[in-house]
Design a protein that fits this description.
alpha/beta; Rossmann fold; six-stranded mixed sheet; binds beta-D-fucofuranose
Length: 317
């Protein structure tokens, strides 16, 4: 009898521990963790690094998430693979920043067929799939381009402009360019992409300085490319911010340092620290609560001459 009871006890303990193994993980407050697959583009810029830090900090276990973070190292094919892995893993919500706008039709359909809601971050998609995402959070890239264009129109209406474009086909490149051209299209003497990174920005600027000797203003779609261009301008014996006026987008620390020194003249902010908004949206989507389709992160502008050291010291990224 005793033996039988013992055996029963063992069996009960076993099934309990088995149950414990298959029960979904719990957060600190006892709630079930929301399984999120997040596909990031890579680490091409200071903006991207700050955005990744913010996403990871907000989608933490303490905040109720079980995050699988995948870095695509700058390749769309890696992003598509990561998205498929998220489907296989059966995550609750998929979140990603599409490196370019097109090429997502098939994988978005697969996600839809699997019934997994999508929260888009930072950039948008251009797809034939109907209702491909529940909600998007990011900046108004068109407005950023417009703000840059307005400042140039007011201050340097006769400028001969070279434009360093971001990753071609990305929402950030397409929209910033459209916005800027609304004001300054007639003044653009040349364009090339610098893929949103410093090295490519430098190389493209070296070529442009040789090709367009009368260029006197640079509009770079992000700080990193502007900083690469500054190296090229100095190497060519010209003074950045004086011989060539420089306007960029982002407002990361290194960019704002250059603004303070007068090597960059104007920066339209694009704030990368919105992990908390992403977390909030994912929670609502998971709980089937209503959300806005578009959630805009508000930006500021910074000008050399009025931007101060104190403001720089307060910046977190
Ligand atoms: O401006 C740039 C980054 O999509 C807003 O991507 C983002 C852009 C940002 O590489 O620095």
């Amino acid at each position: 009898m005793k033996k039988k009871l013992l055996a029963l006890g063992v069996a009960a303990a076993l099934s309990l521990s088995l149950a414990a193994c298959t029960t979904p993980e719990e957060g600190t407050n006892g709630d079930t963790l929301i399984k999120v697959g997040f596909s990031q583009i890579g680490s091409e810029s200071g903006w991207r690094t700050a955005n990744t830090d913010s996403v990871k900090a907000s989608l933490s276990k303490d905040n109720g998430f079980e995050l699988t973070f995948a870095d695509a190292m700058g390749k769309q094919e890696n992003q598509i693979k990561a998205l498929r892995d998220f489907i296989t893993a059966g995550v609750d919500v998929i979140s990603f920043t599409p490196i370019v706008e097109t090429g997502w039709d098939q994988v978005l359909q697969e996600i839809k067929d699997a019934g997994i809601p999508v929260v888009l971050v930072d950039r948008l998609v251009d797809t034939t799939v109907e209702d491909p995402y529940v909600t998007w959070v990011g900046a108004d890239f068109r407005l950023e381009g417009q703000l840059a264009g307005q400042w140039v129109k007011e201050n340097y209406p006769d400028a001969k402009i070279f434009e360093l474009q971001g990753q071609l086909g990305s929402g950030a490149q397409i929209e910033r360019e459209l916005g800027f051209h609304e004001y300054m299209a007639a003044n653009i003497i040349g364009q090339a992409t610098g893929n949103f990174n410093r090295e490519d920005g430098k190389v493209a600027m070296e070529a442009a300085l040789a090709k367009y000797p009368d260029m006197n203003l640079l509009f770079a779609h992000n700080d990193d490319m502007g900083l690469g261009a500054i190296e090229a301008i100095k190497a060519a014996g010209k003074v950045p911010g004086v011989d060539i006026i420089i306007v960029t987008v982002d407002g990361v620390k290194a960019g704002l340092e250059a603004l303070l020194e007068g090597e960059i003249n104007y920066i339209v902010e694009c704030n990368p620290v919105f992990g908390d908004q992403i977390a909030d949206l994912i929670k609502k989507v998971y709980a089937d609560e209503p959300v806005n389709k578009e959630n805009i992160v508000v930006d500021a502008t910074f000008e050399h001459g009025t931007f101060t050291q104190e403001e720089l010291d307060q910046r977190k990224y």
